[in-house]
């Protein structure tokens, strides 16, 4: 007699549990599907507003920065010459490069975000036709007090102005 009473109760409980399990499974499935639709990650939101081919800013350190402008004048590398560049080595706070005639070297500091100061700059002492341009390049480095990197472009600014760069560079990534 007890068996007759328990069998219907057992079937009733199984039906309730299967409905409850189905409900839980539906909620979990919906949450998993919709969870991928919404993101609070700022990098995901930023990529929705920027073109897909836009690159993040090149790092200041350990990037070969090729000189493209001194002040507002474009810099052209004559045939058979090496391009003028800077390379800031973060691990040693050292700067190295080529100024047009001579190899350059020295130290740099980034006291706060956006600030950049070159110090103890030196160069080899060879003469060449590009020496006046090299002198202007070294003067721009000495005058530098701040910088901005936008995508693959580095702009150096002196203490007097932040609207006209003293030098502009393009990133060449090291392999």
From TrEMBL:
Region (Disordered): 41-61
Sequence ranges of Low complexity compositional bias: 41-53
Signal sequence residues: 1-21
Domain of life: Bacteria
Residue stretches making up the DUF306 domain: 58-161
Swiss-Prot/TrEMBL keywords: Signal
InterPro entries (UniProt xref): DUF306_Meta_HslJ, HslJ-like_sf, Hsp_HslJ-like
Pfam families: META
Protein name in UniProt: META domain-containing protein
């Amino acid at each position: 007699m007890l068996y007759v009473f328990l069998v219907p109760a057992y079937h009733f409980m199984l039906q309730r549990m299967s409905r409850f399990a189905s409900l839980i499974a539906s909620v979990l499935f919906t949450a998993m599907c919709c969870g991928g639709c919404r993101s609070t990650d700022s990098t995901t939101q930023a990529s929705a507003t920027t073109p897909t081919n836009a690159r993040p800013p090149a790092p200041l350190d350990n990037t070969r920065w090729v000189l493209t402008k001194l002040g507002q004048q474009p810099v052209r590398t004559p045939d058979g010459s090496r391009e003028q560049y800077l390379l800031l080595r973060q691990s040693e706070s050292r700067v190295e490069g080529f100024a047009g005639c001579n190899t350059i070297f020295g130290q740099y500091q980034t006291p706060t975000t956006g600030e950049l100061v070159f110090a103890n700059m030196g160069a080899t002492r060879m003469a060449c036709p590009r020496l006046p341009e090299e002198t202007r390049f070294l003067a721009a480095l000495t005058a530098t007090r701040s910088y901005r990197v936008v995508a693959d472009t580095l702009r150096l600014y002196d203490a007097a102005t932040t609207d006209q760069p003293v030098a502009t560079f393009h990133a060449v990534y090291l392999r």
